Amino acid sequence: MADKQPHLNGAYYGPAIPPAEQPRYRPHSHRGRSCCCCLFGILWKILVALIVLVGLAVLIFWLVVQPRSFQFHVTEADLTQFDYYTNNNTLHYNMVLNFTARNPNKKLNIYYDKVEALAFYEDVRFASYDVITHMNSFRQYKKSSSPMSAVFTGQQLLMLNNDQVSEFNQDRNTGVYDIYVKLYFRMRFRLGDFISNDYKPKVKCHLKVPFSKNGTFTLFQTTKCDVDF
Question: What is the DSSP string of 150-175?
Fold first, then answer.
């Protein structure tokens, strides 16, 4: 009779089998990207907040102060000599201009530190004059007007082509000359005890100046000039 074999239940009685190793989670790279995103978000919010605050400050300043550009007019023009000699291309001139500068602001004063005037005919400069220097600089108070004047006298080499000479002869026949005056300003604004840095606006005046002959004066029409900051 054959020996009976012990019944095996399928269990494994050898050395223990270690469990399969699970992949390790490495959160460091995601954490670094997350920190960078958080830092960028904080900086962006700070920048937006600063822009909003600056915008509000400018708006409040504008509403309270309501700054406005100064106004500039040529009120009188006296042209007693304006002769061009083609034989030596020389212009002899004598012209006086009176200006009015107005400060329309309710809270700002203006310091006029320097004003230089340049006179042009047919786009060629023929004279210059220091209207305001450190010797006669002044402070203009709010809602006020101040007179200025420029005296252009002398002679200047002026190279005019044939077309420009024809324009000159036409102006001489009509007795009214198209003269362009450009003024360079250096000024400061004052609000209370605060005084601003220098501003350097330019003023452009397109004038029709009548010729005054033998003591007779043709009425000059007050001209508003363009102010460019």
Answer: EEEEEEEE----HHHHHHHHHHHHHT
Max CA-CA distance within the chain? 164
Please say whether the beta carbons of 137 and 113 come within 8 A: yes
Residues paired with residue 180 on neighbouring β-strands, in sequence order: 120, 206
Looking at per-residue pLDDT, the higher value among 22 and 191 belongs to 191
With vertex at residue 226, the alpha carbon angle to CA 206 and CA 211, rounded to the nearest 5 degrees, is: 25
Distance CA 123, CA 172 (A): 17
What one-letter code names the amino acid at 75? T
CA-based nearest residue to 74, from 56, 98, 50: 98
Task: Assess whether pLDDT exceeds 60 at residue 9.
Answer: no
Higher pLDDT, 4 or 200: 200
Tokens of 97: 């201009």
- CB 171 within 8 Å of CB 137: no
